[in-house]
C-alpha cells in the first residue's frame, strides 16, 4: 500500500518519519510512505527544538476558512501529482486535516470514491468544518471544548450578529484577527456525517488532546482504538509498535475486501 503521511503542528515531515519509524518497521517493506510538509512555518511543538533542527511547519495556524481551504488545496495537489494513495497517516493537526477532508467529501459528494481505503489517526484533534459559515460570511455556530474534561459546548449565533468571541480551544496557534471568522469543529453528538472507511486511532491517555481524539472516534463508522499511557506522542518501544502495526495491518486487510 501507498500511504500519505501528514505531520503534527510545529514539526515537519522528517520528524514524522522518525516518529513512525518503529511502526513502519513492523508493517513491512512492501508499503510506501510519502511525507508532506505543511506550508506555514511556525514555532516548534513542545520539546521538538531540543532534538530536531528547524524549520517547523503547520497546515494552518488559525481556524479560518481561507487557511483550511489552503490546507485542502495542498493535500489535493499532492494527491493529483503523487497519488493515488491507498491509505493516510495523520498526527495531531495532520489527522484533523484529513478527517475534515473526508467529512467534507461525504457531505458535498457522497457518491464519489473515497479518498483513501484506510486512515490512521494519532493523537488527532477534532477537525474543523469548512462550510460552517453562512452564505453571507457570518458564522452560525461555534464549538468550545474544555481541554481538561472534554466537555463540548456549541454556541449558536443569531443571524445578523457579526461579533464572534474568541474561545480558547487547543489545536491551532494564532487567534483570528478582528473580522476573521473562526470555524467550528465537527462533533459526533451533533453531526450525522461519518467517515466510512476503516480507521485506526492511536490515543495517549495523558494527552491533553485525548478528549478530542476520542470524539473523532465517534465520527468514524469503522474505528479501532489503540491506546498507550503516555502523552501527545508515539511511543518508540517495540511492544507498542508491534501492537499498533497489528491493528493497522488488520484495518488494511479489511479495507481491501470492502465493497
From TrEMBL:
GO biological process, one term: secondary metabolic process
Span of domain Serine hydrolase: 2-239
One Pfam family here: FSH1
GO molecular function: hydrolase activity
Key words of the record: Hydrolase
Domain of life: Eukaryota
GO terms under cellular component: cytoplasm; nucleus
Protein name (record): Serine hydrolase domain-containing protein
The organism of origin for this protein: Parathielavia appendiculata
Highest classification ranks of the organism: Eukaryota, Fungi, Dikarya, Ascomycota, Pezizomycotina
